[in-house]
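Weekly modeling sync, notes
Attendees: AB, CL, MP (scribe)

Item 1: holo prediction request
CL wants a bound-state model with S-adenosyl-L-homocysteine before deciding which constructs to order. AB pointed out that an apo prediction alone won't tell us much about the pocket. Agreed to run with the ligand included and paste results into these notes for async review.

Input as submitted:
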Amino acid sequence: MKDIKSKTLAELADELTALGEPKFRAKQVFSWLHRGATSFDEMTDLSKALREKLKNEYELIYPTVARRLESAKDGTIKYLWRLTDGNCVESVLMRYHHGNTVCISSEVGCPMGCAFCASTLGGLVRRLKPSEMLDQVLFTQLDSGLPISNIVLMGIGEPLDNFDTVLRFLELVNSPEGMNIGMRHISLSTCGLVDKIDALAEKNLQLTLSVSLHAPTDEIRSKIMPINRRYPVAQLLDSCKHYFEKTGRRISFEYAMIRGVNDTPEMAKILIRRLKGIAAHVNLIPLNEVAESPLKPSYPETVRAFQQTLEAHGIPATVRRTLGSDINASCGQLRRKFEREHFTRKE
Ligand code: SAH
């Protein structure tokens, strides 16, 4: 059956007209869906006959809360959602001064294999549907009672590996008849799929593109991020330049600080050289330790020195504040913990 919440308003209008309904019905249905209706019978301003027609034609899926953890320190809430097929994904609600931000997943697991990341340890299970991405925003807002104003696609998965779905999700969440979240309030993070960054540039969206750079040389980047063997640093940075020229949007580079790997003064120098001429902002993130990996976070003074070197050379750099450290809030950690506790693995 067709997943009704993955349909755009225009598609619904066409399909409902084909079912013999007037066009305005689509708006009614769309607005029920995007307010979090979990059954067609809730849609009380539709006739019973139409509700039956919809039930025959479409499925209305939604996630349930498998776990909900709230940080005692900063109010960050982590959700582990159970999807209709039993798989789980995570979202994190962060409460910033500039508004409530939800970090959502784009895939169950991840195929990219970055050495420091918990989300990729079990590989890719499957890609999410557009409605499953939307529901993370919608149900986080409904469950928490906190209005969501910003979205970051930085949870489990590689958004550009689920390209068409992500574009459709953006259209849904941006829709004035739905959650109406502006593109400028959305960030999309990628490990560097250059062909897809180029394709995204063509769409000329006003979202913020974050690129997980993490190292300025091919030698080091290829060691920690397998994607670098396909798209090396020079090619990635060219594509970022092109992205800026096309969209006018400054790129945000993520740089996880890993002790003794990418945090030396020499690395800072190379990074400065390579970012020359690119409208960039660098986000330094002290590595979150993952139990399965030997990599350690840089010392705070190393992070500060690295930041100062970048700033001294005119590259805006911020050190990301860590939220929710008491609740396993970073990517993929809760899903793995939950799976370990609930499933006995056949070795
Ligand atoms: N696949 C996308 C988005 C998901 S990860 C990407 O690679 O950008 C969101 C960010 O968290 C990425 O920058 C990723 O590299 C980073 N990240 C993953 N594991 C981390 C860890 N253990 N410590 C710090 N940052 C991490």
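Recorded for review: Confidence is low (pLDDT under 50) at residues 343-347.
Action items: CL to compare against the apo run; MP to circulate these notes.
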